[in-house]
Specification:
alpha+beta, Beta-Lactamase, about 45% helix, binds adenosine-5'-triphosphate, Sigma_54_int_dom_CS
Length: about 600
């Protein structure tokens, strides 16, 4: 059964919209074809892949005579019976249907020549057809239609390749615009062709000043450009120093030559990263950050609170700070808290323990080195802690252990606020807050000739002393509570309590290792007690004699007892055997001190 069919206005609109690219490209070809057949009773038709007419150009005579030549008319076999467009829809190849070969009597006066139009992937996307008075038609008409269909296909392919190029270009442009690194591209001769906005910004140049420049001249490094252009070598993360108008700046440089299919260098790209940003990133990754604030420092004792007050008062200046205190008293904690309350709190906090680094490495650790500075020096050199700490804080722990020759270099850096890497000659400006710490008596080290006096005064602009735990007796149980909570959480154990004897022992102990030692003792006790009450047996042996010792431990008068005795004698000597002063120095009551004098058989000399 033949079903005459015509698409609704709405459907026509949808089909035209869906095929707008095809219509746009095909239209000039329809016009050209029509010019060739005009006046001889012909119509030129563009149909979609379902043989629905999308566009047509025809002589008025044929359009009047055949009402099926209209936009929206379906010419499939099911609608019009045998005809060229309907057969092309099925066969997907060029075809001609002559006069009475048509099924419909209405079409017996015409000859149709149709050809498929294929898309990028070979699929049929439309049909081109020329139909008209069979008297005027001949075999060449089909050839003409096929040629026009192929021309349409070629143009469609070209347009989509162009669109792909534009899309790729836009993508590359979007990437260049959004990159956080500076990018410079150059051609096969080494001439700069493009810079991205970050490159303009970090190099402090305007849009015109680079034009026509050779990349080697621009980078002031003909060696690097020769490596890329002549040798086709890729360069990864090499440090270079560039003139940026307002002085020299250091960059991390990577270069990638582009090689064509003849294995020739046809251009390349250079990526520049500001060293200070690289350092910021490195610090973030390696954890050069300060975690503690003043609120994290536990303790209510007057001596600790006084140190905290001084530290808070000076935190917002950039002056050097010198922290003095025994090992484990919390000097690094103070340094971190100072950094976090300072104007450079957003910058890095870089800590270096001068006692832990071999003497011959300390200078390169602190100040960095240039490539070739010594055997084994890394290619491209390496920045030192001072460079890494730029715009932040450097914490020089155990500064008293720094070799004298390094002290000279340190003094120079502090005075000039510039670092020169080992083996280098360029000065690198640094803005840094210096916090130094030691558990030695630095003044005494100066007198002994182990520490430079001028450096001592440089570092000692503000002096904060962090009191030992034995002078902060009231803080001991606060810290114990804190560490019980911390380690119970960490070990996922129920919170345990502390019995009286254990508390007494903890309070009476002299804590030569200060808070660090206390933290270790509580970690051990929490682990052994496993959520039960912490008793004296859970504490380290050195403490067990300090509570009311259990009978079995009586003969075990620990070496800690001897240590405490020694400490008391030392403090008494310092206090010229003044009991009140000595007791306050030790942070214990006078009565307790008398008890201990008796216990250790310490006799007060007659004066
Ligand atoms: N008041 C405090 N409150 C809480 N924790 C503290 C306190 N003081 C020290 N600590 C903790 O004790 C440990 C040792 O502290 P820190 O490393 O700051 O001491 P330090 O004086 O720098 O030691 P060293 O001289 O041996 O380097 C750290 O785990 C720190 O968090």
């Amino acid at each position: 059964m033949i079903c005459t069919s015509r698409a609704s206005e709405y459907e026509i609109e949808i089909r035209i919209k869906a095929n707008r690219k095809l219509i746009k490209v095909a239209k000039p070809f329809l016009e050209r074809l029509f010019q060739l057949v005009k006046g001889s009773g012909f119509v030129v038709l563009l149909l979609d892949h379902e043989a629905c007419i999308l566009e047509l150009l025809g002589d008025q005579a044929i359009l009047d005579q055949n009402s099926n030549f209209q936009i929206g008319e379906f010419w499939g076999e099911e609608s019009k019976g045998t005809n060229a467009m309907g057969l092309v829809k099925i066969e997907e190849k060029p075809l001609q249907v002559f006069a009475t070969e048509h099924f419909s009597r209405m079409n017996h006066g015409i000859t149709c020549s149709g050809a498929p139009i294929r898309g990028e992937h070979g699929e049929m996307i439309g049909i081109l057809d020329v139909s008209g008075d069979y008297h005027h038609a001949h075999a060449h008409t089909l050839g003409m239609v096929v040629a026009a269909a192929e021309a349409i296909e070629n143009l469609l392919r070209l347009e989509s390749a162009n669109a792909e190029i534009v899309r790729a270009y836009n993508n590359v442009n979007a990437i260049l615009q959004s990159m956080s690194e500076g990018l410079i591209s150059f051609d096969e001769a080494g001439r700069i062709t493009k810079l991205n906005p970050v490159a303009y910004k970090i190099l402090h140049i305007n849009s015109e000043s680079y034009k026509g420049q050779m990349i080697g001249d621009f980078l002031k490094n003909s060696y690097i450009s020769a490596e890329m252009l002549n040798e086709g070598r890729t360069i990864i993360d090499r440090e270079i120093s560039l003139d940026i108008g307002c002085g020299q700046a250091r960059f991390l440089f990577s270069g990638q030559p582009i090689i064509d299919k003849n294995h020739e260098v046809c251009g390349g790209v250079v990526i520049l990263r500001e060293i200070k940003n690289v350092h910021r990133l490195v610090n973030k990754i390696v954890g050069a950050r300060a975690h503690f604030t003043f609120e994290d420092i536990i303790g209510q004792s007057a001596s600790l609170q006084q140190s905290i007050q001084v530290a808070k008062a000076v935190a917002d200046s950039m002056s050097s700070i010198y922290l003095q205190g025994e090992s484990g008293t919390g000097k690094e904690m103070f340094a971190q808290a100072l950094h976090n309350a300072s104007p450079v709190s957003h910058g890095p906090f870089v800590a270096i323990n001068c006692a832990a680094i071999p003497r011959d490495l300390i200078e390169s650790e602190l100040f960095g080195y240039e490539e070739g500075a010594f055997t084994g020096a890394k290619r491209g050199g390496r920045p030192g802690k001072f460079e890494l700490a730029n715009e932040g804080t450097i914490f020089l722990d155990e500064v008293g252990d720094m070799p004298l020759e390094t002290q000279v270099s340190l003094l120079r850096v502090l005075q000039e606020k510039q670092v020169v890497r080992i083996g280098g000659f360029k000065s690198i400006a640094v803005t840094i807050r210096v916090i130094a710490a030691t558990n030695r008596d630095l003044k005494e080290e100066v007198q002994r000739g182990n520490f430079r006096e001028d450096l001592y005064y440089r570092l000692n602009v503000i002096n904060i002393s962090v009191p030992p735990l034995r002078h902060r007796k009231g803080d001991i149980l606060l810290l114990v509570d804190y560490y019980i909570y911390k380690f119970s959480q960490m070990l996922q154990l129920p919170l345990c309590e502390l019995d009286r004897k254990a508390a007494e022992a903890l309070e009476n102990y002299a804590w030569p290792g200060n808070v660090r030692e206390l933290s270790n003792a509580i970690e051990r006790a929490v682990t052994i007690a496993k959520g039960r009450i912490i008793t004296i047996e859970h504490l380290p042996e050195s403490l067990q004699s300090l509570g009311e010792p259990p009978a079995k431990a009586k003969n075990n008068v620990s070496s800690m007892g001897e240590l405490e005795k020694k400490l008391i004698i030392e403090t008494l000597e310092k206090a010229s055997w003044n009991i009140t002063y000595c007791a306050s120095e030790l942070g214990i009551a006078r009565n307790t001190l008398y008890r201990k004098l008796k216990k250790y058989h310490i006799a007060i000399p007659n004066t």
